């Protein structure tokens, strides 16, 4: 056996090892990418137009400069913003932060009533409807402003016994003079912070 043959053996073993690593890496990379996609939240940002999401099991971060946003099912979290349009979140086992500059917001919380899901819904003009499961523990704060150019009387409607307080004076600190109707309350341990705020719209909070 020559010295050349002896020297070639370690080199062959080295190249076999390199080839094996490359094959494993080639197989593993698509699996890793697939796993990453499965873990990722749905994220959509648009300059304009509606956004429709059927299912977001790892959460949703959605924004449009103008249009309606509809989410059929979401887990973990939902952060939604539109500069003009309605927001519909039909089944949310999630924390929800939703804002529209002009439009209605309709959200239904589902899942375990003992889960921790803070909720913040805000509209600069429109109705807000929030439905939560029975026994959902929450600390509630509602603010409803009515501007002096509106003839309609807007209301806070709930079936959990919120305490309401209406201002008697007009507030001009934010532009158009407005009066506020506020409501507060707590159910159970108050685990979840629920903040609802609108201008010139009704607020409906219901358990079912």
Describe this structure in words.
The protein is 18% helix and 48% strand. The longest helix is centred in the N-terminal third of the chain and has 37 residues, at 3-39. The chain has one helix and 14 strands, in the order H-E-E-E-E-E-E-E-E-E-E-E-E-E-E. The protein is of the alpha/beta class. The chain has one helix at residues 3-39, and strands spanning 42-46, 51-56, 60-64, 69-82, 87-100, 105-109, 119-123, 128-132, 138-147, 156-158, 163-166, 178-187, 192-199, 203-207. Strands 1, 2, 3, 4, 5, 6, 7, 8, 9, 10, 11, 12, 13 and 14 form a 14-stranded mixed sheet that branches.
Short description:
The chain has 208 residues and is of the alpha/beta class. It has one helix and 14 strands; from the N terminus they run H-E-E-E-E-E-E-E-E-E-E-E-E-E-E.
What key attributes describe this structure?
2 domains, disordered N terminus, alpha/beta, 14-stranded mixed sheet, single chain, 1 helix, 208 residues
List the helices and strands and how they pair.
Elements lengths: L2 H37 L2 E5 L4 E6 L3 E5 L4 E14 L4 E14 L4 E5 L9 E5 L4 E5 L5 E10 L8 E3 L4 E4 L11 E10 L4 E8 L3 E5 L1
Parallel strand pairs: 1-3, 2-4, 3-4, 4-5, 5-6, 5-7, 6-8, 7-13, 8-14, 9-13, 10-14
Antiparallel strand pairs: 9-12, 11-12
């Amino acid at each position: 056996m020559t010295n050349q043959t002896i020297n070639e053996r370690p080199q062959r073993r080295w190249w076999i090892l390199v080839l094996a690593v490359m094959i494993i890496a080639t197989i593993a990379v698509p699996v890793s990418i697939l796993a990453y996609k499965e873990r990722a939240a749905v994220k959509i940002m648009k300059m304009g137009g509606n956004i429709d999401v059927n299912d977001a099991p790892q959460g949703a971060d959605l924004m449009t400069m103008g249009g309606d946003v509809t989410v059929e099912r979401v887990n973990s979290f939902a952060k939604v913003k539109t500069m003009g349009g309605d927001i519909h979140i039909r089944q949310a086992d999630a924390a929800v932060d939703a804002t529209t500059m002009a439009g209605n917001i309709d959200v239904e919380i589902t899942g375990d009533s003992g889960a921790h899901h803070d909720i913040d819904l805000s509209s600069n003009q429109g109705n807000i409807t929030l439905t939560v499961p029975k026994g959902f523990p929450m600390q509630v704060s509602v603010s409803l402003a009515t501007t002096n150019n509106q003839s309609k009387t807007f209301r806070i409607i709930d079936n959990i016994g919120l305490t309401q307080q209406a201002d008697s004076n007009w507030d001009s600190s934010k532009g158009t003079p407005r009066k506020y109707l506020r409501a507060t309350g707590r159910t159970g341990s108050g685990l979840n912070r629920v903040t609802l705020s609108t201008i010139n719209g009704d607020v409906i909070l219901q358990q079912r």
